Amino acid sequence: MKLYNTLSKQKEEFVPLVQGKVSMYVCGPTVYNFIHIGNARPMIVFDTARRYMEHKGYEVNYVSNFTDVDDKIIAKAIEEGVSSQEISERYIKECKQDMADMNVKPATTHPLATQEIGGMVDMISTLIDKGFAYNVNGTVYFRTRKFDEYGKLSHKNLDDLRSGSRSLLVSGENQKEDPLDFVLWKPKKEGEPFWVSPWSEGRPGWHIECSVMSKKYLGEEIDIHAGGEDLIFPHHENEIAQSECCNGKIFARYWLHNAFLNIDNRKMSKSLGNFFTVREIKEKYDLQVLRFFMLSAHYRSPLNFSAELMEASKNGLERVINAVDNLKYLEKNAAAEQLKEEEKAMLEEAAAYTSKFDEAMDDDLNTADAVSVIFELVKFANTTVSADNSKAAIRAVREEILELGDILGLILEKKAEVLDEDIEKLIADRQAARKAKDFARADEIRGRLLDLGIELLDTREGVKWKRV
Ligand code: AMP
Ligand code: ZN
Q1: Which of 83, 177, 328, 458 holds its CA 20 to 30 A away from the CA of 184?
Q2: Total-model pTM
Q3: What is the pLDDT of residue 447?
Q4: Topology adopted by domain 305-407
């Protein structure tokens, strides 16, 4: 399998540190709100990378953090008059719900920054002892000039960067020795959450958390570190500096970065306000459609979000699901049980699609081509397989489509029909929850019904529902 490594700017053959095992760290979201579909892109593409590696027989140790201490979380807590912890706990729960709805597997470990402060204090102390960090009035900075390889990931010209950011040194930040030095620890401001450290009562900088959690859960040297391309600089560059200076080892061997999800050709982001949350998309679509849409592009290509493309993805996914359903019907109606001699060639032809799929995925996880192969296989099934075939042959083709879908995290079997009485019961539960002002539960039931393809309409005459 070849992976494009941001470090070497080339596709490289993937060779894990330990045969048959993969250690992988993916930078997770800062939890101060519902995640948007831009945040969902790395979740979906790297979950797919994990699934593909598992399919190839690797045991994958997959770690993805939640950043649960941050200025934005604190600001949101102040706005709502609650604690930072309440905000982060709430949105971690919501994020996990979104991940489940997108069929993103839970990580082997989802560490929380606030639970790992001791490890961060230890790493910062080591960096100070080794001369890679310095304390000025309670703020600890990393000394970038001391690390010769600083800049090796982002391939940036450091002199340009240094002169470009010199003006930023004018106020407040002039305690740094160098414009590129970054914060490892900062003192608290009034009302902020804080931890005790040898330097000040305060909290860690953002970059140090990933270095520490990666080391704790995966070891000093890991196979893959991944995230969105906006993280290359400074976040990942700084993680490399911290980890390699502290541990004296290569931090991560392969660096994978997804391109942005754009809207009107601009990056979708919270700060620009041009985003849709995963939850908003869920009101209109099964989130399988979102997953299918994301995987229809290569992860390193920018992807533009539009209603038309979502509709096209919905239709494409339906085409595959219908083909699978049709094969199920054919299998039920087929007369012969056992595979016939003359069907062997047909199955060989079908199996060639799996090889083609693997080839696409082996080529730096080309899910765009892999999705095309599924369409080709569907076309093959629609034109070649009939009830005249044996049950065994029909089943083999159907299972092949399901398996390829499963590698991409797509569930291609039609959902079971829901009975009217079950729907009525859930609606009654939702009404009861609303009456008890348990709106979270009421929303959850609405979401569950939507997953079952049932849309609720609150009208003056009461709740109505329709199948969508
Ligand atoms: P954040 O919560 O902003 O730190 O982002 C969490 C993850 O989502 C990071 O890996 C980001 O690079 C990624 N991300 C944020 N916005 C986008 C976007 N519009 N397209 C793709 N990835 C994004
Ligand atoms: Zn990180």
Answers
A1: 83
A2: 0.89
A3: 86
A4: Four Helix Bundle (Hemerythrin (Met), subunit A) (1.20.120)
